[in-house]
Amino acid sequence: VWFALGNLLGAEQRHLEAAAAYDKALELRPNWTSALSKLAGARLGLGAPADAEALSRRAVGLEPANMELVIDLGTILQAERRHDEAIDCYRQALESDAGLVRAHINLAIALQAIGNGEEAIVAAERAAALAPDLGETQGSLGYVLLREGQFAKAEEAYRRQSILEPNAALPLIALCDALRGQEKLSEAIEAYRRALALAPDNANGHA
């Protein structure tokens, strides 16, 4: 129950309460790797990256064959801008299972962060091919294409994401950037208006 509560609180970005719930779960099951990894994420959200990394590495040490835990560790390293180490984690996971969509997504973002745009696009395209109906894969593809100046292809990806996530404003805001890159200003304005209808409190219009 504590673990489930922590997951709900974490989804609401209530990191302090989530961490407390995961701590309770770990009092009952000290070597529960899923709880350790989730606690690591909460600690990261609270601005304690060293604690987060230690918890994540402990989880991986307890269950080294669990590639989801390896991906979680990579996510923490990536948040610390330790992109090369994060990339190693994602590649390790993909060597074990090439169908891990989350590893492809994260690898694409990390590769783009170190300036390896071509490989980033390949990784994002693989994620989208594996899970074409997942908005996150289309959004990640759009992100790396946009950063590489491929605005027309980015537009296509963000349009697919906005169809898959019709109630989300962020895909529309990202779509605006792709449209502006092509000087499609009228369409960009319309996309901004649609985004504002979904998220009127988004003042700056940035994803």
How is this structure best described in words?
The structure is a single chain. The chain has 207 residues and is mainly α. Helices cover 76% and strands 0% of the residues. The chain contains twelve helices and no strands. The chain has helices at 2-11, 15-28, 33-45, 49-62, 67-79, 83-96, 101-113, 117-130, 135-147, 151-164, 170-181, 185-198. The longest helix is centred in the N-terminal third of the chain and has 14 residues, at 15-28. The mean pLDDT is 94.
Q: Average pLDDT across residues?
A: 94
Distance between the termini: 34 Å
Give the helices and strands as they follow along the chain.
HHHHHHHHHHHH
| Sheet/helix structural class | mainly alpha
Helix content: over 70%
| Low-confidence parts | none
Shape: globular
The radius of gyration computed from the alpha-carbon positions, rounded to a whole number of angstroms, is: 18 Å
Number of helices: 12
The largest β sheet comes out as: none
- Count of DSSP strands: 0
- Taken as a percent bin, the fraction of beta residues is under 5%
Q: Care to give the gist of this entry?
A:
The protein has helices at residues 2-11, 15-28, 33-45, 49-62, 67-79, 83-96, 101-113, 117-130, 135-147, 151-164, 170-181, 185-198.
Defining key terms:
12 helices; 207 residues; mainly alpha
Topology summary:
Blueprint: H1 2-11, H2 15-28, H3 33-45, H4 49-62, H5 67-79, H6 83-96, H7 101-113, H8 117-130, H9 135-147, H10 151-164, H11 170-181, H12 185-198
Helix pairs in contact: 1-2, 2-3, 3-4, 3-5, 4-5, 5-6, 5-7, 6-7, 7-8, 7-9, 8-9, 9-10, 9-11, 10-11, 11-12
